[in-house]
Amino acid sequence: MLFNSIDFAVFLPIVFLLYWFVTQKQLKLQNSLIVIASYVFYGWWDYRFLALIVFSTLVDYFVGRQLEKTTIKKQRFYLLLLSVIVNLGLLGFFKYFNFFVDNFVKAFSFFGYNIPSNSLNIILPVGISFYTFQTLSYTIDVYKKKLEPTKDIIAFAAFVAFFPQLVAGPIERATNLLPQFFSKRQFSYQNAVDGLRQILWGLFKKIVIADNCAYFVNIIFDNHTDYSGSTLLVGAVFFAFQIYGDFSGYSDIAIGVSRLFGFDLKQNFAFPYFSRDIAEFWRRWHISLSTWFRDYLYIPLGGSRGSKYKQLRNVFIIFIVSGFWHGANWTFMIWGFLNALYFLPLLLLKRNRIHTNVVAEHSALPSVKELLAMLMTFLITVLAWVFFRAENVGHALDYLMRMSNLSLFSLPEIRPTFLFVLLILFILVEWAGRRQLYAIEKLWLKYPRLLRLSVYYIIAIIIFLYGGKEQEFIYFQF
Amino acid sequence: MKRFLINLVVFVSLVLVSCALFMGFANGSADAFYSKFTSSKQSSLIIGSSRASQDVRPKIISDVLDGKPIYNYAFTILHSPYGKAYYTSIIKKVDTTKTDGIFILCVNPWTISTLKKHIHDTTFFRENNSFVDNTNWVNLKPNAEYIIESYEQRNIQLLLNRYRKGSFETINVSKDGWLQVTIEENDFNRKKRTQLKMQTYHEHLNNYAGFSNVRWRYLKKTIDYLKQYGQVFTVRLPVNDEMILIEKQLVENFDERMEVLSKEFEINYLNFTPMRSNFNYVDGHHLDNVSSAIFSEILTKEIKRLQL
Q1: ipTM
Q2: Are residues A199 and A272 in the same domain?
Q3: What are the residues whose beta carbons fall under 8 Å from the beta carbon of B70, sequence distance 6 or more?
Q4: For the whole model, what pTM was predicted?
Q5: Looking at domain B2-307, does it have CATH number 3.40.50?
Q6: Which residues of A touch B (CB under 8 A)?
Q7: In A, which residues are within 8 Å of B153 by CB distance?
């Protein structure tokens, strides 16, 4: 079920009313409703893959319970290993099996041995990368004794399958989300209104920004040989906004929907395109995944401790693995590798943590230096996004080659005025709200209620006018 | 909670009413299909693919038939070949209170063929999940279901398309369902367009498996159903020589099959391909606006003759 669909527009109010009017007196009942609603939400896409979620839930619940019962290090380690093998095994099979088979075959044929390809027709279950990481975080935290394992299987199942963030995150930590299933949720008018506001902004980002950019991105990327360098640059810039609007829009809707049910999810995007260097960008982009890799991969590898060689190795590992997490394609790994390269000078010069505050925190406009730094960071990000969007490495390289010639300075063949205007307005609103959790969180709160509501009304109407047929979210495929 | 729900309902209602009002702007300029789902149920229909949609003009037919209204409910070969989806949609569109209708079923090899990849599948065809399959309300104005579920353009185009000017390739669906395509007309463009179109259809031959038993069965079901409500005519529309050759490769004995079918159902099969050289085409298989008017008149006279 897509957030931007009629199905969801019917589903959400039904679950909301049942949640607050029918099941609110019993916590267990309320959690059970969440589990059922989440399974319906997921099963709407393909009910067959519900078995994977249930299996993953049962395995991690069982592992958690057993970890509580034993103090023997070896046993605890094997239990952790079981969880890791099951979760990453599922992910590996559904997401990466064909990739490895194909590359294995290609490698052999390169050396003159032609072996038949036995790739399977595997459907990638929506959201598998997200919920497997979420359940893994639970087991690892229990193993590390950072978290008490739960005995409440309903609460645990609700934590794993919580529908607002089930299929595209944010990847919640058990330490943050799981305890919220144990305490009674109280309806808060302010929280609910705030949730709706965030949903509205998320829909705007997805339907108005991302989907409209996607239209031109598809034309330009699919026919890149027909266009000038400047048009290809426009295509790459549009893709940068498409992926941001798509993914951060989804996160905003997920967080907003959660708030309607009295849950508090972590911020997943913190205005990443206003970053002054790539390190800051990665502290602001897909925060739940970046911190997951930081805590469960980067730090266990040694993090920024040890020799320079080890630090560099760790940085490359985390970025390339992060790229690979996005999809079984070399393009994603190169995208990760490029970001590691961008990060390299900052690490060597120990300048990777100089921008930890919000840009122009105490002023309305950035300084020229800040502006240039933001533009530079955005530009190198855009170049990396070309690999992310391209069909294969050859496509990306050819795209970049064709972009890097004198036609870069010509007038683009594709220049949709309405989209440029929308993007400028979008950037201005995002800039004005950059100190908040999402752009319009507190943006118009000081205005009279009627005026504020009028603004929300206009946003809703723009969503309708500039929206069209529902489009799937990009991150569903990851 | 009460305050929250009241405020929410008021706000959402305001937005929904505004959207509904805006949808009222939509007309035949919205796209090539929207309007066809907004007219009332019809007692006479023109059925088929894009050729039927553009070539067969209801107003001319109606004029020749002394004002008897007929509606063009044809779409494209992607959406309305004979099959379950189109059959179901036709049933929803027919006014079953009358039994003196005229039903012009345009047929050609493409409308009864299937793709190679679907040849063993008796349930799945590429029009499944298209707007023809998904639109449950085919007589609604404004048709919110179509706009929300199937409209491919940004909704603002519902309004902007009304004022589209200066473009050489515009489409407009008339109130009687006829799809008028205004296209830049000169010999060079026409030749280039025809060349490209024929090339595309030559390529289609590689993807098509040819005659489909399932589609053929649905053509029969459609005829059988419509016969209850009036007279049915199967019509093969004129196309250029090259398209005839392509279609011969797709389904070799198409006309013979149609003749047998016509006898079986005691209906007429009107094959206009022998007089194909009398018409002008915009791309080799769609008539231009002048030819479509001439053709519609010829077709109607033939129908009138057969009715006598």
Answers
A1: 0.85
A2: yes
A3: B42, B44, B45, B46, B58, B61, B62, B102, B104, B176
A4: 0.87
A5: yes
A6: 6, 20, 187, 189, 192-193, 196, 212, 453, 456-457, 460-461, 464-470
A7: 468
